[in-house]
Amino acid sequence: MALDATFHDLKGKSVFITGGGSGIGASITEGFLAQGAKVAFVGRSDATAFCDEMEARHGARPLFIQCDITDTAALKAAVEQATQAHGAPTVLVNNAANDQRHNTLDVTEEFWDWAIAINLKAYFFAAQAVIPGMKAAGGGAIINFSSISYMMGGSEYPVYVTANSGINGMTRGLAREFGPDRIRVNALAPGWVLTQKQKELWVTPEGLSAHVARQCLKDTLDPEDVVGGVLFLASNVSKMMTGQALVIDGGVVVTG
After folding, report:
1. Which of 123, 150, 157, 160 is catalytic?
2. What is the mean pLDDT of each run of 10 residues along the chain (256 residues)?
3. Residue 12: left (phi > 0), alpha (psi -120 to 50), or beta?
4. 229: left (phi over 0), alpha (psi -120 to 50) or beta
5. Is-catalytic flag, 160?
6. Which CATH superfamily is domain 9-194+223-248 in?
7. CA–CA separation, 10 vs 99, rounded Å?
8. Which residue numbers delimit the Ketoreductase domain (predicted)?
9. CB atoms within 10 A of CB 207
């Protein structure tokens, strides 16, 4: 992955990423490694091969911690493990999510709890786990992945859309609460990023063509297209930006 910009202040930073071994998260992990950051990430599936690849490519190995982020105790333990290895994280990227398709009338209470636990609850408790260390360090950056689905009123995954909207509210609330500690909290809302999972499960020629037609820019989005925005929000380059939602979607939605 090639990135034109170098964010010098990210070198040596302790970074914690949820879902950092696959999809968009894997590109984010590599993006921080390329900047010289010390990266720890959690995921449910074994990421040893990915870590081997990153070490061979960048000369630095990310710390992989196998963890189900819906297990709050395990998530907090993973943050502590990352702290012991790299120092307290001063960058948190809440990236892990699950956009499983579902219909409102089929949603059970168990499914609701599961979807909210992955797509919203884990974000809050990951932030809660890193904030004390960020306060002690004199500041930090939290990047919460949302999506444009709630802006578009996506109808194929109502609980996911609900969580996405909640992420933006949480982002603004945390930004206000911890701004005095120089902790910046921003959301990043991608459009339809063509990860391998999306291609295998939901991308059809007709659906993709219709979506690209709604974009101002007519290229499809790859995971690498999101990385620059994450690095920008993590870097001191954006030191006076907080409580905001950065949209990277090729121009489907227009904010402001």
Report:
1. 160
2. 83 98 95 98 96 98 97 98 98 94 96 97 98 98 93 84 95 98 97 80 80 88 93 98 95 74
3. left
4. alpha
5. yes
6. NAD(P)-binding Rossmann-like Domain (3.40.50.720)
7. 30
8. 13-192
9. 11
